[in-house]
Amino acid sequence: MQTTQFIWFDGKTVPWEHAQVHVLTHALHYGSAVFEGIRAYVCADGASAVFRLEDHCKRLLNSAKILRIKVPYSEDALVAACVETLKVNKLAEGYIRPISFVGYGEMGVYPGSNPVRTIIAVWPWGAYLGAEALEKGIRVKISSFARMHVNTLMTKAKASGNYINSILAKIEAKEDGYDEAVMLDVNGFVSEATGENIFIVRDGIIKTTPWTSILGGITRSSVIRLARDLGYTVEEQQFTRDEVYIADEAFFTGTAAELTPIRELDRRTIGAGHAGSVTKHLQKEFFRTVKGENPKYAGWLHHYTV
Fold first, then answer.
1. For the CA atoms of 80, 86, 88, 92, what is the dihedral angle to 10 degrees?
2. What is the CATH number that goes with domain 6-123?
3. What is the mean pLDDT of the chain?
4. How do the domains of the chain map onto residue ranges?
5. CATH node for 131-291
6. Coil/strand/helix, residue 59
7. Dihedral sign, CA of 133, 50, 281, 204?
8. What's the rounded Cα separation, in Å, for the pair 140 and 137?
9. Which pTM was predicted?
10. pLDDT, tens digit (0-9, with 9 covering 90-100), for 167-223
């Protein structure tokens, strides 16, 4: 991991190595934290822009509301802090990680009056699943771990504790020789990956899991909008693992993964075994959008100057 010089911590900019918490911090023991992953890009004109920054900050606060974590910052304040952190680190593009968490105080499951802390870190980051993956696609398996039931953990909150589910699935997939895992919901339908939403394409129709057991991905919603605007039919409906096996194309979306093709699931080749024509078309339009080359979606970009 590439470090940067400063981290924003409860309203102050502190050196990276000084951004520390007590070992009895509540979130460390019980997972009582919410976070976001956000990307900044260097645009085609050389300027810098954060992709859908306001939407990410809104989702952070919504996640906190679900978990009853009282974040002491408004959406506007979080947006400003993210930009400030990029600028103070002179980072023209990279990854942004805001996290709000229940801090040190009383121990025990009940967080009581423990303080809520907020930090924002930024660092350079390339393709999450590898640069080659964007073209060749990745190998994926169905996880033996189901995505949690919607009334077991709150699936609409991007909560740190929820990611134990993803960690178990990711470790299993990597140790079995795969790049990523797809998780089914408790009813056996395809849910999402460990940190990405999933799409399939068959006979020109794009299908993605509805907003039931999944986290409502911001890249997911962007790709749905792009695809529909390009004339594709996009259906949000449940589908099974064997429907993925016989799909013409399949791909993941996510802030980190961007738009990554799936070339194989459970040792079954998907389509031609590489990024298909629909996937490539959407990839091209997605990257044009995040780099400011499509004025139709200019409102998705928050520009800043280093």
1. -130
2. 3.30.470.10
3. 96
4. 6-123, 131-291
5. 3.20.10.10
6. helix
7. positive
8. 10
9. 0.96
10. 999 999 999 999 999 999 999 999 999 999 999 999 999 999 999 999 999 999 999
